[in-house]
Amino acid sequence: NMNIRALDISFSRLEEEIKNQELRSLVVDVTQQWYYTKFFLLEIVSNENSYRNFEEQIFWLSNDTNSFGHTLRSISTFLDDYHKRQLNMLSYVLIGLLVVYFLFTFLFVYFFNKFSKAKRISLEYKRLLNESLEHREDEKRFMVLEIHDTVIQDMVYSRMLCKDLIKQYTNEKDADKLRTITDMLAGTLQQLRDIS
Q1: Tally of CB atoms within 10 A around 68
Q2: What SS3 state is found at 84?
Q3: Sign (positive/negative) of CA torsion 163, 165, 169, 174?
Q4: Is residue 159 a contact partner of residue 189, using CB atoms and an 8 Å limit?
Q5: Within 13 Å of residue 100, how many CA atoms lie on the same side as its CB?
Q6: Model-level pTM greater than 0.85?
Q7: Nearest CA among 151, 142, 134 for reference residue 191
Q8: Rounded CA gap, 91 and 85, in Å?
Q9: Which range, of 6-15, 41-50, 71-80, 178-187, averages the lowest pLDDT?
Q10: N or C: which end of the chain has fewer CB atoms below 10 A?
Q11: Residues 63/69, Cβ–Cβ less than 8 Å
Q12: Residue 32: which of 76, 79, 71, 77 has the closest Cα?
């Protein structure tokens, strides 16, 4: 009798707590079959007259018990399928999360490498630009030294020769031409010194 009350309470709580419609209908079927089974069990146990129809009541009890067992197996199968669907859904969610993780990781590595490569290229460009400017400065210094060592020296020597020639010439017209050349050489020398 206590077991029967415990099953009654369990089935009523089960009906209240289940949210899934398909499972709820199975639980309602099981509950009804339980009530039939309980009715025949109580009828057999509590009524003296029930022994007369004992064979018929056992038949109905066995039918209700079989139906009750079948519905319980249906609930068990449904719950197994439900859990499998839940596990499949969780596995799809996990696979999706892994795909998102790997995609994010790939994008992070790709953009990090791209940014690093762009930064390396920028640094290389600046280095090459600095080297180019240094080479230009070196060339300029070399040209200034070359001008100073060769051209200016030659012009100073030419100016000195012209001055010596002016002293040797008695003809004033030729001496004026040599003075003009000497003055031009002096101006050119000053310009070259300003440049270098």
Answers
A1: 21
A2: helix
A3: negative
A4: yes
A5: 6
A6: no
A7: 151
A8: 10
A9: 41-50
A10: N
A11: no
A12: 71
CB 41 within 8 A of CB 64: no
132: tokens are: 């180019």
The two counts, helices (H) then strands (E), for the chain are: 5, 0
Side chain identity, residue 140? K
Tokens 């069990």 — which residue? 41
Contact (CB, 8 A) for 190 and 159: no
Is residue 82 within 8 A of residue 44, CB to CB? The reply is no
φ/ψ region of 27 (left if φ > 0, alpha if ψ in -120 to 50, else beta) reads: alpha
Give the model's confidence band at 15: pLDDT under 50 very low, under 70 low, under 90 confident, else very high: low
Q: By C-alpha distance, which of 163, 167, 194 is closest to 181?
A: 163
